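Let's study a protein:

===
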Amino acid sequence: MTYVRPDLIVQQMVEAGARKAALPARQLVLRGFLGGALLAFATTLAFQVALETTPIVGALLFPVGFVMIVLLGMELVTGNFALIPLAVKERKATAGSMLANWAWVSVGHLLGCAMYACLYGIAVTAMGSNMDVAMAQRLIQAAEAKTIAYEALGASGWGIVFVKAILCNWMVTMGVVMGMTSGSTSGKIVAMWLPILTFFAQGFEHAVVNMFVIPAGMMLGADVSVADWWLWNQIPVLLGNLAGGLLFTGMAMYAAHRSREASAVKPAATAAALPTAGQAVEAK
């Protein structure tokens, strides 16, 4: 397995952010759609396995979704929270293109998660004929725990979900970075698995996972309104994920390993120092 030095990883982060910011809206929505659906698949897998065994076994399997997203070049807005700001900082992308990326990818996530939620609801309840099935009840409980349970705590609940979101995306974006530490597919998979397992096993809040779990729970009968979803989860989680990815991974890695001289080097001059296209997969 090849190993990529941290200074070259930061260079990859900057260049990946620039490439993502340049993608057209159509591709961002489609890649976001597929990324959201893949993460939703992994979520139901983890929930199902947790019901049959223990939660830690479900958490051990959840990273399959993240791995597929990264290796297949799909988009994950939470990963982009760490990458694209670095490209903006080095003037390889604009603030406008960064915001457009985040917006279009989020639209794609919502569509992909909604599509999977509808299809999964049909499958797990046998077309609505068995609403008492364990997985349906698990999704209902999760949706209510992620919204009205925080609402019951008032301002403290909003603060708690925000902090959980920071902690979550600190690890998710570390998954992005860890995927850049190896030039081999197997090395990338192992490296990415570790931080994704860490966040999911501890019940932190991830915006894209919640774009599936909460609407799916609502479709199945959870006592959650659209206002509950957005005010007590989706908005604070998006903000917390942004803070965690931007500050604790993106800017922290940049400050720790990016030299002033390196940031001034043209991309063409650094291309020879980076892994080839066959070695490095664009991380999300």
Summary: The chain has 14 helices and no strands. Residues 268-284 have pLDDT under 50 and may be disordered. The longest helix spans residues 226-257. The CA atoms of residues 37 and 180 lie 23 Å apart.
